[in-house]
């Protein structure tokens, strides 16, 4: 599994489904979720989405990793909705959101990034008439994902440099070295792409 | 054959190569020299990443100034920092990206990727996120990503600088077994002991050209005399 919660290798039926079919199913499922009015149905949908994880060979740890970033937002939404619209609405909205995120996580966890990009490339095909190159669109999307760990590494390096020199960590002071590091990395990445004939 | 004819190049007014002329025909050629001696610029000239301000660089008679794209397909380039050479999120995807536009079917691409991953000990990491590999594995991935396109020439710019001794040996063994003509820039002087030819660079010029042992002795002496 990736640090970004992307593809987890596997050979389940869901893994074998084409990316397009999974995205279409996700679209239908999320649309269906939005039509739910009963809080128990929404919570049940979230529970059902969670139960799909082990069926796709994804363990509890992966489920937790998918859900964890959402919890603070769910807590805020639950408090806000309870105060404004009542407990039923809060439960329904949280259930809908939780189910949608879990289903989306399931699609990304069972679909190779390359399959997703091939799909995007096909979907962007009609944009050719406007001068857009679908292969470039897919490549940019891939590189966006690739660059996330580069940003994290640059941030960690700047933080460690501060700590190693006995300075107090202040996020605003790390912005300049992080940006310098990222510009350098971007230049090197561009050079590597040119070297590999991808310019 | 790689050929530089009276090549001079500067970055922001700082001269990095001064009237360099050399023909490289041997199978394995090493390029050694201090930091800032001009060897990285010379390496970048060889696959058209850098175009000389004056003079010509020819790859089998093709001028890099006019045929840069075609030359880049024939001359693979491996950088010292593998992290910045990895373009795609996972190992197999990064290897496959070099085959885009090669006219292969998805099945052919997958077969080529699997073959190169197997040959370079990365088959078990096929779907792993590339940025989570070890330093040695990342450099091997960078090498595999270039070799999958089966270039005729491979230019390696200090590929072992960030590696431990074990991985230096692994990379050295891999380079030794390649059919491609290899131009290796390195500070790991033991790697070039069995190379066919070694060039020593200093101050933007080739100051020694000969067998590895004599070149290394010359280079050590040059560095010891440096204040």
UniProtKB/TrEMBL annotation, chain A:
<dbReference type="InterPro" id="IPR003339">
    <property type="entry name" value="ABC/ECF_trnsptr_transmembrane"/>
</dbReference>
<feature type="transmembrane region" description="Helical">
    <location>
        <begin position="43"/>
        <end position="64"/>
    </location>
</feature>
<keyword id="KW-0472">Membrane</keyword>
<keyword id="KW-1133">Transmembrane helix</keyword>
<protein>
    <submittedName>
        <fullName>Cobalt transporter</fullName>
    </submittedName>
</protein>
<dbReference type="Pfam" id="PF02361">
    <property type="entry name" value="CbiQ"/>
</dbReference>
<feature type="transmembrane region" description="Helical">
    <location>
        <begin position="20"/>
        <end position="36"/>
    </location>
</feature>
<feature type="transmembrane region" description="Helical">
    <location>
        <begin position="70"/>
        <end position="90"/>
    </location>
</feature>
<dbReference type="GO" id="GO:0005886">
    <property type="term" value="C:plasma membrane"/>
</dbReference>
<keyword id="KW-0812">Transmembrane</keyword>
UniProtKB/TrEMBL annotation, chain B:
<dbReference type="GO" id="GO:0016887">
    <property type="term" value="F:ATP hydrolysis activity"/>
</dbReference>
<keyword id="KW-0547">Nucleotide-binding</keyword>
<dbReference type="InterPro" id="IPR017871">
    <property type="entry name" value="ABC_transporter-like_CS"/>
</dbReference>
<dbReference type="InterPro" id="IPR015856">
    <property type="entry name" value="ABC_transpr_CbiO/EcfA_su"/>
</dbReference>
<keyword id="KW-0067">ATP-binding</keyword>
<dbReference type="Pfam" id="PF00005">
    <property type="entry name" value="ABC_tran"/>
</dbReference>
<dbReference type="InterPro" id="IPR027417">
    <property type="entry name" value="P-loop_NTPase"/>
</dbReference>
<dbReference type="InterPro" id="IPR003593">
    <property type="entry name" value="AAA+_ATPase"/>
</dbReference>
<dbReference type="GO" id="GO:0042626">
    <property type="term" value="F:ATPase-coupled transmembrane transporter activity"/>
</dbReference>
<dbReference type="InterPro" id="IPR050095">
    <property type="entry name" value="ECF_ABC_transporter_ATP-bd"/>
</dbReference>
<protein>
    <submittedName>
        <fullName>Cobalt ABC transporter ATP-binding protein</fullName>
    </submittedName>
</protein>
<dbReference type="GO" id="GO:0043190">
    <property type="term" value="C:ATP-binding cassette (ABC) transporter complex"/>
</dbReference>
<comment type="similarity">
    <text>Belongs to the ABC transporter superfamily.</text>
</comment>
<dbReference type="GO" id="GO:0005524">
    <property type="term" value="F:ATP binding"/>
</dbReference>
<feature type="domain" description="ABC transporter">
    <location>
        <begin position="2"/>
        <end position="225"/>
    </location>
</feature>
<keyword id="KW-0813">Transport</keyword>
<dbReference type="InterPro" id="IPR003439">
    <property type="entry name" value="ABC_transporter-like_ATP-bd"/>
</dbReference>
């Amino acid at each position: 599994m990736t640090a970004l919660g992307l593809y987890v290798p596997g050979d389940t039926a869901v893994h074998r489904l084409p990316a397009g079919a999974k995205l279409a199913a996700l679209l239908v499922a999320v649309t269906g979720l939005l039509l739910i009015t009963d809080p128990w149905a929404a919570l049940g949908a979230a529970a059902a989405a969670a139960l799909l994880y082990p069926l796709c060979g994804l363990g509890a740890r992966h489920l937790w990793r998918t859900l964890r970033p959402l919890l603070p937002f769910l807590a805020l939404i639950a408090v806000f909705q309870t105060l404004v619209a009542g407990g039923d609405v809060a439960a329904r909205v949280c259930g809908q959101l939780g189910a949608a995120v879990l289903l989306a996580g399931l699609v990304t966890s069972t679909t190779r990034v390359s399959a997703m990009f091939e799909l995007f490339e096909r979907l962007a095909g009609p944009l050719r008439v406007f001068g857009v190159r679908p292969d470039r669109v897919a490549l940019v999307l891939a590189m966006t994902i690739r660059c996330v760990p580069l940003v994290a590494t640059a941030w960690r390096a700047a933080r460690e440099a501060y700590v190693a020199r006995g300075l107090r960590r202040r996020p605003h002071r790390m912005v300049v070295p992080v940006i310098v590091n990222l510009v350098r990395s971007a230049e090197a990445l561009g050079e590597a792409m040119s070297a590999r004939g991808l310019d | 054959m790689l050929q530089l004819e009276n090549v001079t190049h500067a970055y922001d007014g700082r001269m990095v190569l001064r009237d360099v002329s050399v023909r490289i025909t041997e199978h394995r050629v090493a390029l050694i020299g201090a930091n800032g001696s001009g060897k990285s610029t010379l390496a970048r000239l060889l696959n058209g990443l850098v175009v000389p301000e004056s003079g010509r660089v020819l790859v089998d008679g093709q001028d890099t100034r006019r045929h840069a794209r075609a030359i880049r397909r024939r001359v693979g380039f491996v950088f010292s920092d593998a992290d910045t050479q990895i373009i795609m999120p996972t190992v197999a995807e990064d290897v496959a990206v070099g085959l885009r536009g090669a006219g292969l079917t998805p099945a052919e691409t997958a077969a080529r990727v699997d073959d190169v991953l197997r040959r370079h000990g990365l088959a078990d990491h096929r779907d792993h996120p590339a940025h989570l590999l070890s330093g040695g594995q990342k450099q091997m991935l960078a090498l595999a990503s270039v070799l999958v396109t089966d270039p005729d020439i491979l230019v390696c710019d200090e590929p072992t600088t960030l590696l431990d001794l074990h991985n230096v040996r692994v990379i050295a063994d891999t380079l030794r077994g390649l059919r491609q003509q290899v131009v290796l820039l390195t500070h790991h002087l033991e790697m070039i002991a069995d190379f066919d030819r070694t060039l020593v660079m200093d101050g933007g010029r080739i100051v020694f050209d000969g067998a590895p042992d004599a070149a290394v002795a010359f280079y050590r002496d040059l560095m010891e005399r440096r204040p």
